[in-house]
Write a structure and sequence with these properties.
alpha/beta; Rossmann fold; seven-stranded mixed beta sheet; 10 helices
Length: about 250
C-alpha cells in the first residue's frame, strides 16, 4: 500500500517554530490561507497586513511579504498597500478584538468603500493575547477575566455578528462565516478562503471570511472541549454560512 506524503505548502516557512497555544486554531487558519495562495499561484505577488493579537506572528509562518499594523488598523494598512500596489494580492489577518473593537471603524469603512483586498478575522470570543478579557464577540453569559459573572445585556450589550455586518456593506463582494472545529468544516472553510481571494483577483471588491475558533487556554478547556463549545454554543449564535456572494447573482 502506498504511503501518503503530507506536503507542506510552499507558502509555509519550513523552519518556523510553532508558538501558538496547544489546541489553538490559528495554525489551521494560516495553513488554509497558505494552501489557497499556493493553489492560486499568487505567492510571489501577495502581501499581508497583520493585526495585533495572537495572530500577529503570522509572518513567522507564512512565506509572503508582511506588514504589522498598529492595533486595529490592519484593514487601513491593507487599503494603503492595495492602492499603492494594485497589481499585488493583499490580505489582512486579525482577531475579533482587533477587527471589531478598536478597529471596527477601519474594518467597516474598508468594506463600505469596497476596497479590493481579502480580509480574515479569527473569532474566539475573547481577547486572547492579553489574558482573556471580554471582547466584542463574547457570548451572553460567557465568563471572562473582565466579566467574572458573565456577559449581560444591561452592562455590556450584545456581541457583534461580524460576517453579517460586513455583508451589509455595499462594497463587500463576499462575506462568509466558517468553523474550524472539525475536518468537514475545515474543508468548507478552505472553500470560503479561496472564494475570498478569487473576488479580489476578479476586482469585485472586499472578500471577507470570519473563522470560528476555540481558545482552550483562556477558556480553561481542553482542545476537545473547546471545539465542543464552538459546536454547541458559538455556532448557534454565530451561524456559519455565506452571507454575501456577488458572483452568485
Amino acid at each position: 500500500m502506498a504511503t501518503q506524503v503530507f506536503k507542506i505548502p510552499d507558502s509555509i516557512k519550513k523552519d518556523a517554530k510553532y508558538t501558538f497555544c496547544p489546541g489553538c486554531d490559528h495554525g489551521i487558519a494560516i495553513r488554509l490561507i497558505a494552501e489557497v495562495i499556493d493553489e492560486l499561484g499568487i505567492r510571489e505577488n501577495t502581501i499581508s497586513a497583520i493585526g495585533i493579537g495572537c495572530g500577529v506572528t503570522l509572518y513567522d509562518f507564512i512565506n509572503v511579504d508582511s506588514l504589522e499594523a498598529p492595533h486595529g488598523r490592519a484593514m487601513a494598512v491593507a487599503t494603503g498597500i492595495k492602492r499603492a500596489k494594485p497589481d499585488k494580492y493583499v490580505f489582512s489577518y486579525q482577531g475579533d478584538g482587533d477587527f471589531a473593537s478598536i478597529g471596527l471603524a477601519e474594518s467597516m469603512h474598508a468594506a463600505l468603500r469596497g476596497e479590493n483586498f481579502t480580509s480574515f478575522c479569527i473569532n474566539n470570543t475573547t481577547f486572547g493575547m492579553t489574558g482573556g478579557q471580554l471582547g466584542p464577540t463574547t457570548m451572553l453569559g460567557q465568563i471572562t477575566t473582565t466579566s467574572p459573572t458573565g456577559r449581560n445585556i444591561e452592562y455590556y450589550g450584545y456581541p457583534i455578528k461580524i460576517a453579517e455586518h460586513i455583508a451589509q456593506c455595499d462594497g463587500t463582494a463576499f462575506s462568509a462565516r466558517v468553523s474550524l472545529d472539525s475536518v468537514a468544516n475545515i474543508k468548507k472553510a478552505k472553500q470560503a478562503v479561496k472564494k475570498a481571494f478569487e473576488v479580489q483577483i476578479k476586482g469585485l471588491g472586499l472578500g471577507f471570511v470570519e473563522f470560528l475558533s476555540g481558545c482552550p487556554t483562556n477558556w480553561k478547556m481542553s482542545p476537545e472541549a473547546a471545539h465542543e463549545r464552538v459546536r454547541n454554543e458559538m455556532m448557534k449564535i454565530f451561524v456559519p454560512g455565506i452571507y454575501k456572494d456577488v458572483t452568485e447573482k
